Amino acid sequence: MKKNILLLVLLAAFAFGCEDFLTEEPEIAVTNNNFWKNEKDVESAVYGMHSVFRTVFGDVVMLYRDRGMPFDFMNALWQYPSNNQPSYMWNASYPAIDWRNEYKVIAQANLVIDNVDRANLPQERHNYYLGQAYCIRAYTYFYILRAWGDAPLIKESVDVGEKARTPWQELADFAIEDLKLAAKMLPKARDLYDAGNVKVTSKQIPSSGTAHAILAHLYAWKAALNNEPELNKLSIAEADSVIKHGGYVLAGSPKEVCDVVMLGNSNEGIFEVDYQNMPGDLKGSGAFIAGACQRWPIQPLTTPATRRSLLRINNTTVMEMYMDESDERRDEYFYKLDSMAGVATSVTQGAAYISKWRGVVLNVGGSGDGTLKSYEDNEILIRLADIILLRAEVKAKMGDTPGAIADLNAIRDRAGAPLYSSAEGDLQEAIAKERDKELFLETGIRYYDIIRNGTFREKLRGKYKTLTEQDVADGGYYLPVGSGAFTNNTLMRQTLYWKRNGYAY
Prior knowledge:
Elements: H1 39-57, H2 61-65, E1 73-74, H3 76-82, H4 100-115, H5 123-148, H6 168-185, H7 208-225, H8 231-245, H9 254-261, E2 269-273, H10 289-293, E3 311-312, H11 315-321, H12 329-332, H13 337-340, H14 345-348, E4 360-362, E5 372-375, E6 379-383, H15 384-397, H16 401-415, H17 427-438, H18 446-453, H19 456-459, H20 469-473, H21 496-499
Antiparallel strand pairs: 1-3, 2-6, 4-5
């Protein structure tokens, strides 16, 4: 069962209550003088940070930012951003391109980092809370730099005033230093305890393994996007720390991935947005990727003919992805893929029935009795299979073919799929396809994989295919900067590519 974590919001209300957080004084200046007296105060502040983090990184708007999902049909709201034509659906104030919420997470982390010393905690407990704040701040900057590229760097809670965009490489270096500190300060996941000495099992609470896992991704990103191949060695070293020493274990089968890992807080999970079936805790029925693409047989009161009007993936696409019939993910991630493919398209729409998320929560009582309320599944940000396949990718880039194959085969073996053969062709492409298969539709994975590996013209849609080298240099695969960033900030500048393509700021 999922461990109930106390996600207090005591200080969440203090996290820059004004809209323009870059130019207004924080509202917590006076409050700080009367707070931070003991561990309970610090714990409240840290859980307030996690509350903001969960709100921001569990928001359905985030899913629209993943423009690499392999659906064959998308409605317009999903289609145009996935074609790199966001201005067709998203105006300059649309929430999906507004980074102010991410900066609220950073503001909350800065609040903890700048004030935790006031409580005079024992070193171990001081490090436990400070390490969490470093880790959350670093992950958020990593998310920002991948989504928008250059962005303001806010280092302290008292750092106010107009801000220009800092080169993304500097943001990356800042996040790397945060993560190095967090990795030293935080215990392993199995050794996390709260202020009441109760074991913490939520994978939203960072451990040393979380910091190492984010570092593995961050080094791989900077190595590829900034042409620093020497960083690949560091990515592998960080992945080694997770795989060999983190205490994480792969689930036994794809069925266990769906039933246990996707539900959350499993031994395979490393970093997650934690949701539980409690009043006010779950998102709405449509506020989860499953709510947009899953109907029958997971969603109650549906039939095989229930229309899927937002997102669909064709049977033929799935069969091409999972070519071998022994691959157990065919019949776990998709319900009766082969037999349902033989049913008339007037019923199936020619599409596979996705069934990867199973933590259904129903409405009880009233007119909606028995209908879908939401999913209890966590948002899985990083899990062990992801890190193993990332290490395989980086090893392949560095010429460690045996090591890359061993990592690739570890995931294939778990799935019951055939082990890698040189007859398949390019090893790096085989690993990329394995990431597509294993991490199918998981939050923000495929798009950033494609950008990291430079295959966006081949694998993405629409205008991604025609991006020139100058377009790329001008930020063509980043998001445009939303209008909120320009409020009372004369130093802000729009990404050059998007200034030419639909965004005037």
